[in-house]
Amino acid sequence: MSAVSDDEIIKRKLLVEGESGNDDRRLTLLLKNYLRWVASDDVGDVGFETFQALIGSVNQCENAMEQSALVLSMNQEQLNQYSELFKKISQFVFIINLFALETDMENAKVRMDECKEELRTAKIIRKNRREYDSLAKIIAEHPERDVTLEKCQKLKSQLQRLQELDKEYDRKIALRKKQFHLFLFALNSLQKVIEEDESSSPVATEDPVTNLPDDASTEEGTRMDTN
After folding, report:
1. pLDDT digits (tens, 9 = 90+) for 107-142
2. What per-residue confidence (pLDDT) applies to 24?
3. What per-residue confidence (pLDDT) applies to 9?
4. Distance CA 211, CA 51 (A)
5. Where would one find the signal peptide in this protein (predicted)?
6. What integer pLDDT is reported at residue 213 of this predicted model?
7. Quick one: which of 19, 72, 116, 163 is 20 to 30 A from 37 by CA?
């Protein structure tokens, strides 16, 4: 069996008796010595020494009592300090929780803004996809670019030919208008000559064509050349 060290013995005594074990033994020893001193009826030097020992034991007990009172007061003060510290810690924890709650609210607000932005972006993407699908359907209904360009080139050629033909028709119409105007002028001049001949002489021996004015003859010749 292994030997028990002094530290183990002191530790066991402290665990069994606690801090007040020595005080209890001191009071018990003081009471026994006091009863023994009272029962001895010794008034000599031995009795005086015993009395001084009892006074010393009483002083030790008083010191122990004062020490216990101081320890109790100190424990109470520490308890009060711990209570104040607990209140401060509780307030600090409350402030931290409040700050954390505000932070969570700010984060939630930021997240809501992000979700709104994502929703807006998703709506734009959805709208663009619909427009893309519509354009794709319209493009699918029309022929390819090469075919369209070829048709466009043919239409341009036809349009140019029609424009040239329209210009040619306009030129011919303008020429016919000039010829018709010249014909009317010649006809009017001829009618005047005939009327003058009829009014001047009942029997006309001159050739009507010969008696035409120079301008009328010239215009008539121009008309005949044009035809």
Report:
1. 888 999 999 999 999 999 999 999 988 888 887 777
2. 66
3. 65
4. 195
5. none
6. 47
7. 19
Of 218, 211, 210, the C-alpha closest to 186 is 218
pLDDT (0 to 100) of residue 14: 53
Predicted confidence at residue 60, as pLDDT, reads 78
* Distance, CA of 142 to CA of 136 (rounded, Å): 10
Asked if 61 contacts 30 with a C-beta cutoff of 8 angstroms, the reply is yes
Alpha-carbon distance 34 to 166, whole Å?
155
d(CA 213, CA 198) in angstroms, rounded, equals 16
The span from the CA of 29 to the CA of 36, in Å, is 10
CA gap 97, 91 in Å, rounded: 10
If you compute the radius of gyration of the chain from its CA atoms, what whole number of angstroms results? 71
Q: What is the rounded distance in angstroms from the CA atom of residue 59 to the CA atom of residue 78?
A: 28
Q: Do the Cβ atoms of 168 and 182 come closer than 8 Å?
A: no
Q: How far apart are CA 34 and CA 32, in angstroms?
A: 5
φ, ψ of residue 144 in degrees (nearest 5): -75, 170
Low-confidence ranges of the chain (pLDDT < 50): 1-2, 15-18, 203-213, 215-227
Confidence (pLDDT) at 16: 44
Instruction: Take residue 125 and report the two structure tokens written for it.
Output: 């993407």
Structure tokens at 165: 């033909």
Read off the DSSP letter of residue 193: H
Q: What is the C-alpha end-to-end distance of the chain, expressed in Å?
A: 159
